[in-house]
Structures are given as C-alpha cells and as structure tokens.
Amino acid sequence: MMAKSASQEQLFIGIDGGGTKCRATIYSAQRGVLGTGLGGPANPLHGLERTLESIMVSTQQAMRDAGLRLESVHQLVAGLGLAGVNLPSLFEKISEWEHPFQKMYLTTDLHTACIGAHEGGDGAVIITGTGSCGFACVKGHSVNYGGHGFAQGDKGSGAWLGLEALKAVLLDLDGLGPQTRLSEMFKLHFNASSAMGVAEQMAGQPSSSYAKLARMVIEAAHDGDMVALTIVKDGARYISNLAKRLLEINPPRLSMIGGLSEPMQKWLDPDIAKRVEVPRQPPEMGAVYFAQNALLEEEQKVAIK
Amino acid sequence: MMAKSASQEQLFIGIDGGGTKCRATIYSAQRGVLGTGLGGPANPLHGLERTLESIMVSTQQAMRDAGLRLESVHQLVAGLGLAGVNLPSLFEKISEWEHPFQKMYLTTDLHTACIGAHEGGDGAVIITGTGSCGFACVKGHSVNYGGHGFAQGDKGSGAWLGLEALKAVLLDLDGLGPQTRLSEMFKLHFNASSAMGVAEQMAGQPSSSYAKLARMVIEAAHDGDMVALTIVKDGARYISNLAKRLLEINPPRLSMIGGLSEPMQKWLDPDIAKRVEVPRQPPEMGAVYFAQNALLEEEQKVAIK
Prior knowledge:
2 copies of one chain form a homodimer. With 305 residues, chain A is α/β, with parallel strands linked by helices.
C-alpha cells in the first residue's frame, strides 16, 4: 500500500478553454470532483484578455461550487488546455500571465482532450465540432494533424459541411450545378427566394454560423440527396484518413468528440468506425490529469537533485 | 446630319467603384475624354461613407485633370457603377445621397462593366479577378450569375484558386492528400516549414490575400502539377458554364475582364474561348454611356408629355 502523499490532498483545477466557453473542474485525488464552473469564450487566438477573464470566471464559479473561499485560489494547482499554445509566442505570453494559482501547467486543448478521453492514458482523439482536427499521444510522443482553421482547413467539420452545402446551393440556384434538396431547405431556413438572398445573409459570417447549417446537410444525406451525400462522404473520408494517420503511432484507444462525432460515425470507413471508443472523461478532467502528472514529474526531479 | 443637341455639349462623368479603387472619367460627346481621376476603395458593401468619399476624390481629380473649376461639378451628369446596388435597400440609400452633380444615375458595377466592354451595345461580360461573376444585357433584359462572395461563391476567381490551393497544400503537408509542388512554392512564399506555419499566416485574411496566391497556382498548372491542374481546370469549367448560361439570352458579344481573364482563357472550353472578344472600353466609360442613355430616355419622356 502506497504512503499517502501530499498530492492525495492537493487540490487541482482543470480548465478547458474553447471558442464559445471555458469549463473548469476542481478535483482532489482523495475526494474526486468538488465543483465545476463555466465561463465565456477562451480561445487566445481570438483575444487574450477575454480568455484570461473567462478562465477566472470559470475558476471562481468552480470554487464557489466546491464551497471554497476565493482566497484559496492560491492553493490550487492548475492544468490549462488552450487552443493555439502550440505557437511558441502564444505559449510564452500565457506563461507570463500573473495567474493566481499555486502553479499553472499549460498545454493545448487537443492534448487535454486526449488525456481526458483516455482517462490519463495514451490514445488518439479526433475532434469534429465547428472545426476538426486530430491528436495522438503515445509514450510522451505526440502528433497532430488537420485543424488549420476555417475556410482553409477543418475538413469534415460542421463549418466545412455548411460551407460546402452553401456553395452547392448557390450553384444550383444559379443553374450552374446539380439540383439538390438543400436549396429548398436553405431558402426556407434563410427565408430567401434567390441565390443572392441566401448568400448575403452568410457573407462575412464566422465559422460558427456555417456550422449551424451542418444539421441540414446530414439530414439531406440521410434522405438520399446526392449532393449532400457527396459532401458528407467526402468529409467522412477525410476524417477516416485522419484517423488512419493518427493510428500510425499505435495509440491503444481512439475516441471522437464534438457535436458532429456521432452523426459522422456512420459514414466512416468500417475499419475506423469499429475502432472508435467512447471518451471516458471530458477535456477539463484531462487538464486535471495533465497538472497531476506535471506536478509529480517536478517533485521527482526535485527528489533526484 | 443630326442637329447638334444639348447633349453634345453636356459634360458627363462616369464613375466605376471597386473594392480597392474608384475610377472617374469626364467625357463629352463632342470632345471625348477630358480627364480622369482615381480614388480609394468604393464598395458600399464594405462601407458607405468611405465609398462616397472615394467617389468625390476621384471626381475632383478628374475635374482638375480636365481643367475644370470644382464649382462646375453641379453641371456634370454622373453615371455611377457600384457593387451591391442590386440590393434595393442599398440602391435607395445611395440614391438619397445629397450628391453635388446635376443628375446622378446609379446601376451595378457589373452593368457598367458590360456596357463599357461593348461600347454601349448589348453583350455579356465575365469578371475574373479577386472574385468572379457574370452579367449579360440584351434589349433591356439583364441576367447575372455567380459572385456571392468569398469563400462561398466566386468560383474560378483568384481568391478561389488561392484558397483551393492552400487547402491542397495543407492536406499534402499533413500527409492527408496527394503531393503537389504547390507545397514547396507555398512554404517558400510564406517562409514556413510546416502546415501550421503556412496556415497561421492566412488565418482570417481577406479574399485579396488569397487572390495573391493565384499566380503560383497558374504557374504550377502550366508546369503540369496534377493538383494545380485539377484546381485550375475545375475553376475554368465553372467559368465556361457561367459563359454558356449568359449566352442563353443571345448576347451579340462576350468579353472577359479582370486580372485572371487572360491566364484562365487557355483552360476554357474551346467553344467558349473562341467567343471571347476584347473589352472595347473600361467600366468607367460604361458608366458614361449609361448616364447618356438615362438622360436621353428622360428627355424623351419629357418630350412625349
């Protein structure tokens, strides 16, 4: 039986920053999850100030939920998963933040999502929500593919499905492409009667607005619409290839997360679809595991010295 | 011999508003082009104030160039071709402008481009620059197809070529798509070594930045790169279909204008390529012809009363 170490008592906070919200979970090895909190957008690529504010909002909410006094924030060891911190400049900027925690360990949102999905173990994860990307980590070696943002990357994602469908609808309405029932669906959705009427409502819209169209594309594909089917199958082929690329480093598990992971699964290569397992924990718990491991490594280094 | 009418002496100003600049030409039937001027961006969809300012800058420059006193702006009959005024709300807004001209006649930039290309006569025009679209006018009946903006429309345009190429490069660099020499070209262009390095420099960039990549795509296609060839041929197929759609109303002439019209011509359907004729006059002269016709019609209406 292991001696009860200080880290059994240590309070951790796992924080998962996302484009629309920030989730925080307070956890101790001894007592499990003590409280959770929710903040606003926390993608540092879209604004650093806003991100730090959302982190603090979710932190304070989680502390209140856990029945902790706000001053005890200094006792928390934080794990933080944020988009874009694979860029060294952004990693440095956030590392320099005068955060209130006892310690703060920073990594990408992909990394914490992966650690969470496999409950701290090695594995691979594919995220298909508004955007899409893949990440795998095996024995400390990690790879990531895809992402790259809307409209140049994120193939197979909600925003990509929406954009491809809109392009097909505009071609159809101009008499320059095959007919698709998506045209009637989009005209109804936008309350518009022409290509121009549909197009002007989407001009300059962010990727999240395109992602809102994805539901209709999936629906039309289910109904056998050839244009929608071609789009969905093209996206699913990409996701399958992404999975194969991740499996090259032999991760023991593969999970899919995000709003489109469930509807896309039926279109994946059967070989890939049968490999997909449920994510065991959410990304904010991945951030907790990440902080636990980082603290342990630090303590071991100190012990060796 | 026709009697010398008042409109022989009348001074006209033709104004062509574009996304990056505004061109003005002062003209009289008797004396031809008297002066030209150049202003800043004049796309009312991107800002009405800025557009009106650019119109006045180009107008004043053209007046100085013509040796006219600025007070005589009240004697000019203006023809104005602007993007987006096919939207009734925008047409109305600009019509309500307290302009300094004697009269002002407003239509779309596509319409004035078409009138200019065919020196006042009927015809069709395809614009392939940063964006793409088609317009035809025969006996007062006009049609227009395409456009719809980046990234959802404008197929076959410079921005579209650049975006499709970037998508292919990111797939290649991730090992998720066919190899293309565009990848080396783009890495060199962006001074980047990875997909991430290339992608982050294009994130959130406007369509004009994507259009700057088009030259490399055309070059790679000429060199026989299969990925670039597929993209360019797909774009050219769309432009050919757009031309066929415009030819349905039997315009007597077809012209192409914009920075990509020359390089794209060799990839068009041979049947279409041989129909393409040089534009005879620029869009700002189209705006002059438009104003001349509109004034004449008004005078005839008054005469009938």
